[in-house]
Amino acid sequence: MAKNLKVAELPIHDSVKEILQEYGILELFPPQEDCLNAGVLDGNNIVLASPTASGKTLIAELCALKHVLDNNGKVIYLSPLRALASEKFEEFKKYTSIKKVDGTKISVGISTGDFDSAANWLERYDIIVTTNEKADSLLRHRAKWMDNISAVIADEVHLLNEAERGPTLEIVIARLLQVNPSIQILALSATINNVDEIAGWLNAKYIVTSWRPIDLKEGVILQDEIQYKDGGSRKIGQDTRLTIINLVLDTIRNGGQALIFSSTRKNAAAAAKNVAIHMNKVLVPKRGSKIVKQSLEEQTRATLEKEAKKILEAGERTQLSEELANLVRSATAYHHAGLTGAHRKIIEDAFKERKIKVLTATPTLAWGVNLPARTVIIQDYRRFEAGLGNYPISVLDYKQMAGRAGRPKYDKFGESVLIAKTADEADYLMEGYVLAKPERIWSRLAVEKIIRGHVLATIASDFAHTEQGIYEFFGKTFYAYQYDVKAIKSVINKILRFLHDEEMIYVLGDDILATKFGKRISELYIDPLSGVIIRDALQSNPPILTEFSLFHLISHTPDMGPIMRPYQREIDNLTITAEDHKQELFIDPPDQWSDNIGYVEFLGEVKTALVLNNWIEELPEDKLFERFNVQPGDLYRTIENAQWLLHAIEELSPVVAKNKDITTLSTELIQRVSKGIKKELLPIVALEGVGRVRGRIIFNAGFRTIDDLKHASIEEITSLPSVGPRLAKKIKEQVGGFVKKDTWERLGKIPEENTQKELFDF
Description:
Blueprint: H1 14-22, H2 30-37, E1 46-49, H3 56-71, E2 74-79, H4 82-92, E3 108-111, E4 127-131, H5 132-140, E5 149-154, H6 166-179, E6 184-189, H7 195-202, E7 205-208, E8 215-222, E9 225-228, E10 233-235, H8 243-253, E11 258-261, H9 265-278, H10 280-283, H11 290-313, H12 319-328, E12 332-335, H13 341-352, E13 358-361, E14 375-378, E15 382-385, E16 389-392, H14 395-402, E17 413-420, H15 423-434, H16 448-460, H17 467-474, H18 478-482, H19 485-501, E18 505-508, E19 511-514, H20 516-523, H21 528-538, H22 547-555, H23 571-580, H24 596-616, H25 621-628, H26 632-656, H27 660-675, H28 682-685, H29 692-700, H30 706-711, H31 714-718, H32 725-735, H33 741-747, H34 756-760
Parallel strand pairs: 1-6, 1-7, 2-4, 2-5, 3-4, 5-6, 8-17, 11-13, 11-14, 12-13, 14-17
Antiparallel strand pairs: 8-9, 9-10, 15-16, 18-19
Helix pairs in contact: 5-6, 11-12, 16-19, 16-20, 20-26, 21-26, 22-24, 23-24, 26-27
């Protein structure tokens, strides 16, 4: 095909062309043309490795639309992160006005949570965006509509190399190929060294390109001079003694935005605070009349104040939200997993809209949502990890971060800069990162802890019922392609013995079948070891059953994820707490003297249980963060995992223990943990728009039941702190109350027919 192929010339429906042209997409980028030449619209499997912003998403869209419009097919889009899934869902939605052959419009769905569900409602969608984990759980539930999938788009496929997420992606792709061997695979990545191996595994053609719509200048800065990969160099101004600040100010003065990668959350927050102090030097324009400058400054301040207000209104007002809001007023922010999802979203949107000029982040952002910047600054190339200490990041990680440089439509080039302190270090960074190739991608599958659940799912979901059948499935994985299925056989054998000994599977002749217990564990999407811990615990109840009992039990399972590690200063108090709650524990604590490591781990479980206990006792978030030295993102991740594991207890207790008290308590706790409330607030917070803070305000004002609210006047509810007219109306509608028109007139707000949706969406 000729270069600069026009969208108007593509072999796609005219309705698709019209939408692309509306969005200003008139011709294809070279990597996109390469994909068409390789047969991506003809059903060929393709692995595309091309830089950020080179147009991979458009190829995914064209591939998906071809299946839906020409073949009446169904497409699943796999994403490693919920935030990325939401981003892709929004991008696909622009095609929902297009009509299919049968006259119905293209439909796009998204599902990223609730792992204990077949999500049959997804059947009605043509394009379904999910996380890898959700897709895995759907396969375990044998969702029938998945048999009709004709194409799978696997985003960020280089994450096969990542120990936590890679194995699930690998299993999902292998499983989809097992269900439908003729399925088309489109695998996308920014950085792959051994792309030929991944293509070989998928029986795919591969395209590797370094083409970018915006040139990337990679370099290393020492003091005031940047040395670039191409041999060029430039000097920057010396506003301060700190190189990183000077680099940021230089970027903003030249109309750019800066993205700073720091090794830890603490360093990211500190960098943002340091930058914010100097932002007044560049936020206010230096040229122009005094009146013009004053007007621009006022506009900028007003815009940033609106964003700061959003931060403060997203959830409870805390010290952290105050800190973030203050940074945003200086067009600066930090972004890491310790923040709430709401705060991260506000910051991401403000950065995309160029309101926030400088964003500091931990390296995980490099694998996440699309947040390009003119200049990417890698503050330090070492990362701290518990048990490993400080170690250099991989070249693959560096290339992912560097790839964020350059904003399409805004920049003529992107700039990625590593900071060196000495000349020797500058040479090391140039050779070891800027000029280096990324490491090979290796499968991380053959670890017992990782594939335990996948072996059980293979049996429980009827994908294989013999030992040979299990080996054949795992023989289709990337691990078996890179090594040999024999290398994984010993691990599978060990897992099968474990599953048999723990009564999750049984043998009948040559067949291996799942027990009722084993099948439920697989459907609940928990580690079989978590299932064993829960089962054994529920069969021997503690002398006193309390909320703390279940909180400690779920904290003891591997699925709780990172528990809240006790600091040295907390050890004594946690030891006393553990002794105070001894009669409530399902699990006996290890001996403090013979197993010190195990005992400290146990105290971490106690701390996690204590945090959850304080949460449902309505301890304000700020006090909770201060008391336990925990960050909001970590708290909400723990809350989410707790809900999931409490649901597992709720489902397993009738199967393994038949203890109604445990079932009842776990059901109640799921709701209380979800909202962070005492039991008495359950009816009130069940109302949409009412959370833990508003619920407590309403309850303390004397409205303790739904009936109380039903008989309350609209004026009484509206007069409560943080409850305005819209929410009051919404509450009255939900409880079956009636609001007269003259009441709204007295309140100075008459809802018109076209505002009803707004009222109910508040």
